[in-house]
Amino acid sequence: MVAEVPAVEAPAVIELRQAGLTYPGPPPVAALTACELTVGAGEFVTVVGPSGSGKSTFLNIVGLLDVPTSGSYLLDGIDTGALKDADRTALRGRRIGFVFQSFHLLPYRSAVENVRLALLYGAVPRAESHERAREALARVGLGHRLDAVPTRLSGGEQQRVAIARALVSRPSLLLCDEPTGNLDTATAGAILGLLDELHADGMTIVVITHDPLVAARGARTVSIRDGVLTERATV
Amino acid sequence: MRFRRRAARGGSPVEPSVLPLRELLSESLAGMLQRPGRSALTALGTVLGVGTFVAILGLTATTSSQIDSRFDLLTATEVTVEDTSVQQNAFAGPVFPADADERIGRLGGVEHAGVYWTVHPAGSATVRSSPVGADSGGEEIGIVAASPGALLAADPHLAQGRLYDAYLSRGAQPVAVIGSGIAARLGITTLETYPAVFIGDQPFTVVGIIDDTRRKADLLLSVIVPRTTAERIWGPPKGGDARMLIATRVGAAGQIAHEAPTALRPDHPEYLKAVPPPDPRTLRGTVTGDLNQLFLLLAAICLVIGAVGIANTTLVAVLERTGEIGLRRALGARGRHITAQFLAESGALGALGGLVGTSLGGLTVVIVALVRDWTPVVHPATIAAAPVIGLLTGLLAGLYPALRASRIQPAEALRR
Predict the structure, then answer these.
(1) Alpha carbon B350 to chain centroid distance?
(2) Dihedral (CA of A135, A139, A143, A146) sign
(3) For A169-201, how does the pLDDT look when each residue is reduced to its tens digit (9 = 90+)?
(4) Same domain, yes or no, for B231 and B113?
(5) At the fourth CATH level, which superfamily is domain A14-230?
(6) In this structure, what DSSP letter does residue B354 have?
(7) Domain range for residue B133?
(8) Chain A residues with CB-CB distance to B337 below 8 A
(9) Does A100 touch chain B (CB under 8 A)?
(10) φ and ψ at B146, to 5 degrees?
C-alpha cells in the first residue's frame, strides 16, 4: 500500500505552529507548552518521553482528538483550528490512521470486519470496503486469517489487524501510540519491521513511545519532557 | 438525524462522515448479537409487556364476541314491561288489561307475549300432591300466575304433557304446569294418572311438566297456573307485582318496547315501563371497561419495567464499550452516529421483544379460546401496533444511554 501523495505543492503532513495546550484551572496546567514541529510526507518520526511528559496531549492534538488552546495545527495544509467539530471528525477519520497500544479491536468481529470499520463512516461502498479490507490484511501478512476473531489471534496478529485497519482508509499519517507496549520483544521487533516496510513504501509515520529502543527505529526522534518538545533525542 | 451523504457544504475542506442506514442497521444488529443471552434477557420485559397487551386485548375481543353471540340468541329478542303505576297513582288498579296478550300479539314482530306475577296467597299456601296422608304437610313452593302467552314467551321445553292454552285460561280452569324438579319433590312421575297438586286446599290438575326454559329460569322452581285462575282464586296482583314478558323477532325489540305501553294502556301509557334489551355496543363497552383497564395498566407497568431494563442494559453496554466508542470516534464517527447506533440497538431490542411478545400474546389468546371452545378474535390493529409499541419502548429507553454515549470524549475513551 502506498501513501496518497498530497496534492500539488505537497505541504507538510504535520505542521505545529506554536501549538500548545493548557487545561483551564484552577490552577491551569500546561500539558504541552507552545511548540514548533513539521513532519514532511514520508517521514518516520518517533516521539519519546517518560509517562506524564505530555506525550498523550501531543497524540491527542496531532490525532485531532483535542484542540490546541494556543497556536495552530495544520494537517496536510488544512488549518484544523478553523474547522467545525464535525469536519475535524471527518478529517480524522479520513487522513489519520491510529494504532493503539491496546489494539482496540472489537472482540466479536472478524479481522475483515474490524478493518472495514475504518471505512464505515467514509461512504465507501460495501463491496469495495470488503475488498480493501482484504488487501490491507494481506499487506500486513494476515491474508490467511481474514475471518478469525481477535480472541483467536496472537498479540502480534492483533496489532497487525489494527495496523491494517489504520492503513485501509489510505491515510496521510499513521499515528502509533506505544504500538509495541503490549507485545514481547520478538513480536515487537516484527511489528517495528512492518512499520519500517510501510515507511519504505512512503507512508508518513509518527510513533509515540517511552521505549528508547523503539524510538531509535525512527529516522528522526523528538523528545517531550515536562510538556516541552525538543528536536533532540534524550533518554 | 441524517445518515446519508449530504451535499458538500460550502467551503468545507473535507467530505463529512456518513453512516448509511444499511451500515447502521448491520452495526447495531452485530452489537445486539455479540451478547445474545444478555440481549434476550433485556428484551424479556418488553416481551412480557407487549405480550400482556396483546393477550388482554385479544381475550377481551374474544370474550365480548362470545357475549355478543349469547346476546343475539336471547337478550336481543326480549322485552319486559313493568308496572310502575303504584308510584303515580295508588288507586290505579290492575294495570294490565285482561286482553293484554292479544293487544301485544297484534304488534308486528311479536312472537309471544304474556303477563305473569308471583302469587302470594293469604294463609296456608303450601303445595301438596294429596290433600291427606303422610306428606300432606306440603312444600313451600313459589306459585306463578302466567297467561298462556307468558308461558310460551319463556320458551319452555316440555318433558311430559302440554302447556295450558287460551281455552283453559279463558275458563279459569284449575290447571298447572310444574317444573321437573318440583314434580320429583311432589312425587309426580307420570301424567298418565292425571295427578293433581293442592295449593292450600285448591286442587289443580297437572297438565304439563317442563324440564327447561330459555327465559325466566325461575319458572322451573314454581307451580305455574293460568292468570285467570289465579285472579279467580287469589284476586288480582298487587300493584307493581305484574310484569309482561314479550318474545320478539330479531331486531323488533326496540320498536316493540316503544309501542307496548300505548298498546296496553292507551289511556295511561305512563303506568307502564318497557325495558328493551341493552344495546349490544354499550353492553360490550361496559364489559370491556373495568377489568380491562386494570389489565392494560398491568401491561403498561410491564412495559415500563421492560423499558427500565433496556435502559439499564444499554447504559451498562455504553460504559463497557467506552473503548469501542472512542475507537469509532477516532475512525471518523460523529457523536450523532454513536447515538444512532445505540438507539438502533435498543430500538431493535424493543422491536424484537415486541414481535416475540405479539406472538406469545396471540398464542395465549388462541390457547384460551381453544380450551374454552371460543372463537379467538384479535383486532388486526392490535397485532400491528404491538411491535411498534415494543420499538418505541426500546427507542425511549435507549435515548439517555445513547446521548450519553455520544458525549464520551474519544481521547478519554481511548486511554482505557
Answers:
(1) 31
(2) negative
(3) 999 999 999 999 889 999 999 999 999 999 999
(4) yes
(5) P-loop containing nucleotide triphosphate hydrolases (3.40.50.300)
(6) H
(7) 93-267
(8) 121
(9) yes
(10) -145, 135
